[in-house]
Amino acid sequence: MKHFTSVLDVADINVLVEKAIAYKVKPLSDNTLGNGKRIGLLFMNPSMRTRISTQIAARNLGMEVIVFNIDKDGWKLELEDEAIMNSNTVEHIKDAAPVLGAYFDMLGVRTFPSLQNKEEDYAEVLLGQLIQYAGIPIVSLESATLHPLQSLADIITITEQHKEKRKPKVVLTWAPHIKPLPQCVANSFAQWVNAWGKADFVITHPKGYELYDTYTNGATIEYNQQTALQDADFVYVKNWSSVTDYGKVLCEDNSWMLTPEHLSISNHAKLMHCLPLRRNVELSSSVLDSKSSIITEQASNRVCAAQAVLAEILKHNQAC
Amino acid sequence: MKHFTSVLDVADINVLVEKAIAYKVKPLSDNTLGNGKRIGLLFMNPSMRTRISTQIAARNLGMEVIVFNIDKDGWKLELEDEAIMNSNTVEHIKDAAPVLGAYFDMLGVRTFPSLQNKEEDYAEVLLGQLIQYAGIPIVSLESATLHPLQSLADIITITEQHKEKRKPKVVLTWAPHIKPLPQCVANSFAQWVNAWGKADFVITHPKGYELYDTYTNGATIEYNQQTALQDADFVYVKNWSSVTDYGKVLCEDNSWMLTPEHLSISNHAKLMHCLPLRRNVELSSSVLDSKSSIITEQASNRVCAAQAVLAEILKHNQAC
Amino acid sequence: MKHFTSVLDVADINVLVEKAIAYKVKPLSDNTLGNGKRIGLLFMNPSMRTRISTQIAARNLGMEVIVFNIDKDGWKLELEDEAIMNSNTVEHIKDAAPVLGAYFDMLGVRTFPSLQNKEEDYAEVLLGQLIQYAGIPIVSLESATLHPLQSLADIITITEQHKEKRKPKVVLTWAPHIKPLPQCVANSFAQWVNAWGKADFVITHPKGYELYDTYTNGATIEYNQQTALQDADFVYVKNWSSVTDYGKVLCEDNSWMLTPEHLSISNHAKLMHCLPLRRNVELSSSVLDSKSSIITEQASNRVCAAQAVLAEILKHNQAC
To answer: Which of chain A's termini has less CB crowding within 10 Å, N or C?
Structure first.
């Protein structure tokens, strides 16, 4: 693996999952692999789990880590190719990226979408320019449209929790929220589950919240949440804003908020969410505080997921 | 010691003080004790000495340290049990704490009081919820009502500086300030000196600034500052806002500002303050720049104090 | 070297440059020199290259590093000697510096000028007070009027890139900008090139942008940019605000923006800039994206420059 920006960078999902689970058992088993290597973690936006878990993962591999909050410790980057920079951007990514490439052996970067301009967001300009100009491996710490480290942790969690031989039924259900949120977690989860191919996968959401079929192809789209949740083994709850009416909140129907009643027709489904979440808006407290929830376990798997990815990239670059 | 949130967590203050002084002499004498252990330092509020000294202490013990400015690198946490999170809080402590518990072996946390609601502040909800939900040792880096790492450093400083066999006279004096400040340093110093029991302890402040007797029991309360300072060996200067008229500034009498004249009737008293301080508001420049001041020494002792506490917790958990 | 705040702290520039180039080839050749030593990096202002390169340099030498964003993680410092601190400053440098001196073995500090008060800015009060009160070596990470780590990297870059025996012609040219910027990079580059003495040095700028001759003595001042650029081997592009009409933008003549046409009369000049830069305001995209630019190489040299400086200070203090 050279870069890690989506499931398309992964040669074999199951091998990566197994590697991650091995690191979970023995986190320090490869603790010299990254010696003398340095990763920069660049944050354009807030982050808790990604920030902390990636630091831990890199340190477990013996790497040096430097965190750089570009938005606060630095300044606003320009992404437009031929911009006349007489406004509020202070440095062009074309100038910053090669320097970061000289300082680090690997770069992680988090960048949220604007939710104003779909074409721009889905073009993933920042990631693309970093790959083009930094000259070192780039790891997405959540981009405008995808969150692959989260999705890998999600697949690890399902793999660990599903004890039966039959395929699990996995349901991704839209949930209400007070603010328009990115589509990245939903896009990415759909893309990974479909590429993985080891689940019966259903996506349910109100009309108007359709995701691009680039990500959802392979899943069943079901507009009736109750029908979707029937016999589910895993229920992934997540809000996203509309793709078609880009970045808009179209539905405020609180009946989509997940409660224990919603799960009653499932197959004792395990409850998943990427966090952070708004209690009693996306999901009820009662379902979160019940035994159904595997959300903490899922968040814990962010460490071994990141560690498996960083290790793959380190090994690829040793071989080159 | 399992957690460290007040003097009540300390089995024997003098043993802890001796341990700290030993670390001061040989900071690296236990530099493998924390190998493979990771502490997260969570800041809801600004911090200089606590932030830096705790990092140093943890590194001296061979621990990994990750600093997380929740307020800036993350988002606002919800503490209310059954909140409907449709406002400005982004994540519930109930959901964040178990994840932090999975990522770290120990958590330090700083959280200031609102000074708006006494019952809420004194309930120390955040500390309590972290202890309940994180499942790992919690170290107060200053909470809404107490600052035990500061108080331990204070006791260490008095122990080091008092060369005579007789009990020292220790005076905590209120000082003016332009803003309402928390009561935590005063509460905590009072609680520690009283629990320690090795000083004649006087607290002086204008009427209306009475602290809870939970903390002050054992001390003499003296409203006349001059009477209080008579023959003092140590004078601890600190502003706090009113407890009874909660969070309010009641007194703007500048004669409470400590000057060399105030110390003239003391027993060549040593001057203490936890820092940061406002020169020529709380204390005069002349007294700060005189030989009476042991404020730098006191701040220096924050490192060995933190190191002794972290080491105790590490050892307790090894034994479990 | 005890402190590093300007070229005046350097005994022999060429020796320091050679040392830096040696570290560039073998970054870990002295990786135990700083063991058990701790540097604090204090930022009053944003920073990308300085922040990251100094961390890397210190880690390459085996030092512990703690970054402290005073402005965000802490609070505003008071610098005025006898201030009555009843306004927005929370701690006096006189009180903070000795504590930092107790916590660290070395301090790096970045502080920008106000550009409001020339006398105050050029007095470099913060650096001076840190040197006076911290009692440990102080390294400028860019001060109000100078940026010596940048200048050392600049001299390293010219040394590496100039392959001929004759002296290179080095031109520092003013460039347009939309905001008033400090004079520190220009001051410092002039001071270093003149002290170095191994270049024919020309400074060109519009009238009204004269720098103090303390820094420029030894250089030719040429108001005609075209005349200045004739036969140049290196062209350093940089905006600065006026010294005489202090902190003001006097010229908005875009013909000063550097383009390939400007370089056509040079001797295939290499293009330098300290970054960040505003494309198509200070320099055109086309010249930046051409082979003339050695800006990335220059920024890369910030690591070995910082490493050589920190190593010198470490060795000086070992010898003491």
So the answer is: C
